[in-house]
Amino acid sequence: xxxxxxxxxxxxxxxxxxxxxxxxxxxxxxxxxxxxxxxxxxxxxxxxxxxxxxxxxxxxxxxxxxxxxxxxxxxxxxxxxxxxxxxxxxxxxxxxxxxxxxxxxxxxxxxxxxxxxxxxxxxxxxxxxxxxxxxxxxxxxxxxxxxxxxxxxxxxxxxxxxxxxxxxxxxxxxxxxxxxxxxxxxxxxxxxxxxxxxxxxxxxxxxxxxxxxxxxxxxxxxxxxxxxxxxxxxxxxxxxxxxxxxxxxxxxxxxxxxxxxxxxxxxxxxxxxxxxxxxxxxxxxxxxxxxxxxxxxxxxxxxxxxxxxxxxxxxxxxxxxxxxxxxxxxxxxxxxxxxxxxxxxxxxxxxxxxxxxxxxxxxxxxxxxxxxxxxxxxxxxxxxxxxxxxxxxxxxxxxxxxxxxxxxxxxxxxxxxxxxxxxxxxxxxxxxxxxxxxxxxxxxxxxxxxxxxxxxxxxxxxxxxxxxxxxxxxxxxxxxxxxxxxxxxxxxxxxxxxxxxxxxxxxxxxxxxxxxxxxxxxxxxxxxxxxxxxxxxxxxxxxxxxxxxxxxxxxxxxxxxxxxxxxxxxxxxxxxxxxxxxxxxxxxxxxxxxxxxxxxxxxxxxxxxxxxxxxxxxxxxxxxxxxxxxxxxxxxxxxxxxxxxxxxxxxxxxxxxxxxxxxxxxxxxxxxxxxxxxxxxxxxxxxxxxxxxxxxxxxxxxxxxxxxxxxxxxx
Length: 715
Known about the structure:
Elements: H1 10-16, H2 19-36, H3 42-51, E1 54-56, E2 63-67, E3 73-75, H4 76-89, E4 93-96, E5 102-107, H5 112-120, E6 138-139, H6 154-164, E7 179-182, E8 197-206, E9 209-218, E10 230-237, H7 241-255, H8 266-273, H9 275-288, H10 324-333, E11 334-335, E12 342-347, E13 353-355, H11 356-369, E14 373-376, E15 382-388, H12 392-401, E16 416-417, H13 431-443, E17 458-461, E18 475-484, E19 487-496, E20 509-515, H14 519-533, H15 540-547, H16 549-556, H17 605-619, H18 623-644, H19 652-664, H20 676-685, H21 690-714
């Protein structure tokens, strides 16, 4: 199926955007201009740009753009547009992440709004890719085409994304919130136990009828203090997916930590309350939740009809199917499909990096061979999902032409790595540099272990934040540093025995910190240990568990030793950065947590001025403007006690919602203000009149008095 977008001018692109998106990007453009003109402070602008997916990069003066790709799903036009904006605004390559995002680098801040407009033109948003929001919703890349799926979770992931995007309930949380969906019953391609919410497709017979639902895990997460999620239920009906999720998020927003940023994820709230009390609060919230029937309208619109495929796929020259190289590729990269006559093809993307030219060529290939359907996996690879079996030889030749017919996706030599110190402000070591070295090693010194290591994984993160999910790997490395005679030495914390196995998911055990230069030797030693100690077909993780941390540490402790600089200066260099001095970033804060409040402290004076303005407008018969001034006065009043609770919303709508959730529902405010957000919204939807303006003004005055009382009690 051909998916093409005609070339447009920026004016045509802007005119064609939905009103909400156009206004949002126009506002962001003004905010960028104000910041560059020195009219907006650093902290306030950080909050603004992070919500739009813009990170400050390690290099001064340029930005990294995170782009949300829900469930990793792209069509050929979207992939082509990503390549085009990468060339036009960024550095000509894209990085695929473990959360199915795309990241672009070296972007000038003033060009960001137009880049976002070009992405929005093909249905891609960066909104809430960062910040204290619900991040990109990830899902099994095989969902919809896997022969082992219970059902396709794609429409449910899409519905979840649509519900949460721009929703006031999740714009100002204490910390980020991550969600995934898994469709297969025998595999875990999404990581259901390492997310705040993990949904796995389940089918259950109820009253003689098969019903769809989800097994649900809550409170998982990685980072410096990883936790596996708690099983919430074995079966949550699909109709309950959104109401349940809204209840969980409201409780997290209301009771989650906001002051200590490193303890603000939901896993810490569950540790603090205990899973039983957390469950009680969520169930109580769900019982009170006013569910709009429209939330589940998507269930009526699910269409699982297979896509229309290209009837004119070119054939390969005779003899290709007998070529040993083709056979090796087929054995390594071609996966079974739910529909007879089709296959999936797994494309290994080294370090998750793909150039714009290669991506454009792949978009053309996707259009021809895979019904324009391609997905990003959490292993940083790309999956063609609708390839006719008869077209595999021709596809192989097309992929080989652009150097994407690589063997071994999702095997030991297909290493997962985050950007690390190459571009990230938090990166300590170069994860990609080490990954390059280990990949080369699998073709040389480590090649003898190719059969033994088949099915095992290596994941490398440049810092404890675990963007490469290294604690879910059989062998994981986390960037660190050592010191020797006053010099910094790049190092890696070694982890062993982790894996994404659904209900049996394991977090890897931290063993010891070793010099980065010795990391390849550590891998070799661990594989030798596995070879020598396993019983029959015993899995690597089970062998490591049986041997125990102390024994493993004893086996590899020699690699923690560092020679002096004079003895071997290479130990003081990071992989891939041999010409640079290894130094730790000092005084530079990462932005994964993001700021929750800006530096300007709100006061009641703004609310007072707006009330006075509303009164004057009312006297002059300007009812609509008076209503809006009174409404914004309500938000200005509520902002003061919310700020004291470290909540600093972006808009009046968000402020009123947070007042209700964090002050009314906690007992700080009188219960008569319950559902104030709904009441005010209904009033704004009515036609302006004198009576309505008077009523809104009275509410504004009453709320001002109430917020003064609350603020006095909070201080």
